[in-house]
Amino acid sequence: MQGAIARVCMVMAAAILNHPLLFPKENTTLQDQELIARMREHEERLEMEEARLEKELSQRDSKQEEPSSEEGYSWYFWSTVSFVIFFAIEMCRVQGGADTEIRPVEDEDMLLESGSITPRTMVLDKDILSDFCDKCTYTSAHENWRVREFVEGFADDLLESLRSVCDREADMEVWDFVGIGSMFESWKVCKPLMCDLIVPFLPPDPYSFQFHLWCSPSSDTPPDMQGCGKIKVTRLGENEEGCLCGSANLGEDMLCLLHGKDDTLKVDHSPDELLCSRNTHFLAKDQVMKWFQISVTKAWGRISHKYDFEVTFRNLDAAGALKIRFRSGKVIVMNIIPVVQLEDTDAYFVSHFPSNCDSFPDPYWPLSFAVYERNLLKHFAKRLPQHSCHLHCLQIVTFLHRKQTGLTGKSALTNYHLKTALLHLLLSKRPSVWGIKSVEHRLRDVLSFLQRSLNEKRLHHVLIGNSNVPKEVQVPEIIRKAEPINLFRSLVLQRELYATTVRHFHEMLRNAPVLIQEYTPQLPNGGLHQTR
Predict the structure, then answer these.
(1) What pTM, to 2 d.p., does this model score?
(2) Which positions fall inside the Mab-21-like HhH/H2TH-like domain (predicted)?
(3) Which residue of 20, 217, 321, 393 is 20 to 30 Å from 286, comparing CA positions?
(4) Beta bridge partner(s), residue 47
């Protein structure tokens, strides 16, 4: 009997020593699946051993005479002590629950790594900020408009030449370009001078595009493809019930009253000719970019004699990524991006994002709302104070981000994230607080918003699923009612990328005063250096 009691005590002692609360803190990461599995396995073994001992004790009790009073008291004493110990441990665990929050230790260390530097405590000189804003305004007013004027004229000429080298019966139909991005939203500040132009195109007759959005009721889009869609190339009449003119020979004497005679005489194209993925009817981005790059090269060859500058492709993997170099040494960068318009909206499926490293496999095309975002900024400009500071805040933050990237390398943070943070604040704050004298406070607001978003690993797209967007912006209803999309989803899945991004942001806060002061020099005669 005494031996059995000793074995029970040893089992309970082992359970106490293996309780999770007694592990060192650095080993209590609850996201370690292997550790959790071992703990559960050990717990099951303890339960089995305890059940076996109880069964053995009951069998011995039935065979032996009733124990003496001393032995009975000893058994009850040890049982009571064991219960009290377990009860005390459980009470401590419940009481300390708030201190044992389930989150990775590494993430917590990263968030506290930067010490006392926060957007609220960083030192910003109001005079230097004002000087920086003056120079940004000067650059935007006196240089950007000339660059836009040149780019628009050159793009018109290039696209007209492109149409002349394309086969109107077999090639895609190219429309006029649309200017998007910082240069056309008046917040461009850093060199080089860069203009983003999107160029919509359509398939040749009698083909058309059908769209399968990620937010459609019957969509099978994977979670990592949220915000994307597939583009199917269909022939006129293929999906119209009751019409056989596209699939049957009607003869010379019969005419389809729905589509007309000319529609039935079009020659069929193979999927490759329609720039589709292999063995599918879905439009392929790599095929489109290859076609567009070849077409732009031919188009430039026809008009190059008219211009006194050099044009080269900056990136062979990105169609329309052009670099224009003048004899004076001045450089202008153009991104002419082939896109597909989503029905009659201002949303476009883009073949690639010039400033984004993320790639989406075919046949998924990311959807861009750049035109709606530009319209949203115009909407705010009409309601903010006459000399507002919202674009200045964006210029300063993108400037700091670019300079910090030059110092420590790339991270997951992009200018689009910075712009999204500003738009969220514009939607949530009163227009009156965006006066030019409030630039310091609003700048801290933008940086604080970004810091919270990084801490939570969550930054929602400003237009998708956001009911606060004014109806005057005319965001499509299906986009407005869709589930919000987290632009920081990659930070949730990739711990190393998250660590790099957090360090980048903290270093940017630490270096902000020096960077702003260093890169706002003045010439002796009162003129201004161009911001580098």
Answers:
(1) 0.73
(2) 391-468
(3) 217
(4) none
